[in-house]
Each structure stands twice: as C-alpha cells, then as structure tokens.
C-alpha cells in the first residue's frame, strides 16, 4: 500500500498486469487478517477480484483463490514485483500453452532481474500439492514443491534475452532501499506513457544512473529453507 505518485504499489502492479494479453482475470489473494483490510478494500475499489484466506498457509490461500475464480491455469505473480514487464508474463504463458511443460518459470535459475518473476502451472498440479504436502516451507512458498521434485514435473526455465540477463539486479520490493529504487524508476519513466514502460527502458535508465542501481545492491534475498 506504499504510495508512488498517488497510487499504491498494488495498484501499479495491477495496472501492469492488465496489459498482459494472455490472462483472463486477476485475483488478489490476501489474508483474512484485519491488518489486510485496507489492501482488500483498495483492490475492490479498482475492480480487482479479491480472495482472503489463511495468513500463514499461503499454498491453501492461493489454491482457494484460483478455485474461486474457476481457473485452469495459474499465473503466479507475487505482490513484491511492481515493475513486472507484461511482455515477460505473456512469454511465460505462451511457453506453457505449448503443452510440453508442467511449470514455466523465470526464476529457476534466475536470469531476468529479480522482480521479473513469473510462474505458470496448472491448478490441478498445485491442488495435488496442497492436498498432500504438509511441509511448512511448501505451505509458505507456493511453488517450492515443483522445484524440489524435478523428477515429477517437467520444468522449463524461460531464459532472459542477452540484453535483459541481469540476475543480480533487484527490481522487487522487500526493503526500504528497494522502494527507493522503484520510486525513482516510476518517477523518471512514467511520464507521458504512464505505466507502460518496459524492462529495456528500466535497464537503460539504471545503466544511465548507476547511483540509483546501487541503492539496493547490498540487499539480499531470504532463503526459503
């Protein structure tokens, strides 16, 4: 709910996801903790579907949200990715629809910048995990079971084009420093095109302004185990 240019980060993310041509709907899967009331109320105001579930059992919450939407295919985007490029999301969906993968991911291994994170898989596969696996790490990290069992699933990694292969660059929102960088990107790129700038433009801006790129360079991702 942090504000950038008068719009909460969640709203900026949803604006960008609405530019993805191959998704049919968006659902915000948040918790039933009263602290998340403002988030759910805001999502409803901007006409985004909302599903509220268990705060700690994220796997159950995501499965229930997708079942609520009558989904067949899940395109998982975390709320900490407000700079996600719609073209990257479309590319991952297109690869999944080729029919030769159980999971398409931009994160395993990471070649895109952190924050260009897209995962696509069937709801039926995720539902099986939810019904059969009690491991707390799997309940918290929705797709973890897929990656830890490559013998069971055909996993396709969507590699970044050479000009976008920047796996050490943080474009996600976890730290105050991340917010400062994202704020600078939006402040300099939104302009006349609004929220339609792409990853190439983000990278060009940061390359031209290395002091901004360094703002969050010391921040580290927390291990899932």
In CATH terms, what is the fold-level topology? Spore Coat Polysaccharide Biosynthesis Protein SpsA, Chain A
Strand proportion, as a percent range, falls in: 5-15%
How many E strands?
8
Q: In total, how many domains does the architecture comprise?
A: 1
CATH level 1 class label: Alpha Beta
Tell me which CATH architecture applies here: Alpha-Beta Complex
The major β-sheet equals: 4 strands, mixed
Mean pLDDT: 96
Order of helices and strands: EEHEHEHEHEEHHHEHHH
Fraction in helix = 25-40%
Distance between the termini: 28 Å
Q: Strand order within the widest sheet?
A: 5-7-6-8
Low-confidence stretches: none
Annotation field: number of helices: 10
Q: What is the assigned CATH homologous superfamily? A: Spore Coat Polysaccharide Biosynthesis Protein SpsA, Chain A
- The coarse overall form would be globular
Helix and strand composition category = alpha/beta
Rg, Cα atoms, Å? 17 Å
């Amino acid at each position: 709910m942090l504000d950038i240019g008068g719009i909460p980060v969640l709203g900026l993310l949803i604006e960008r996801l609405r530019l993805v041509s191959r998704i049919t709907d968006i659902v915000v899967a948040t918790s039933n903790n009263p602290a998340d009331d403002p988030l759910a109320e805001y999502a409803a105001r901007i006409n985004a579907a909302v599903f509220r579930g268990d705060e700690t059992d994220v796997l159950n919450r995501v499965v229930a949200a997708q079942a609520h939407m009558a989904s067949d295919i899940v395109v998982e985007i975390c709320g900490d990715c407000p700079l996600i490029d719609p073209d990257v999301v479309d590319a991952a969906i297109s690869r999944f629809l080729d029919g030769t993968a159980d999971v398409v991911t931009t994160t395993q291994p990471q070649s895109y910048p952190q924050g260009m994170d897209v995962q696509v898989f069937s709801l039926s596969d995720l539902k099986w995990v939810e019904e059969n696996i009690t491991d707390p790490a799997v309940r918290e990290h929705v797709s973890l079971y897929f990656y830890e069992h490559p013998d069971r699933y055909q996993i396709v990694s969507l590699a970044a084009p050479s000009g976008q292969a920047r796996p050490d660059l943080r474009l996600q929102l976890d730290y105050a420093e991340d917010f400062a960088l994202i704020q600078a990107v939006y402040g300099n790129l939104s302009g006349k095109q609004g929220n339609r700038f792409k990853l190439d433009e983000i990278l060009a801006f940061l390359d031209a302004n290395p002091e901004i790129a360094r703002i969050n360079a010391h921040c580290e991702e927390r291990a899932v185990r």
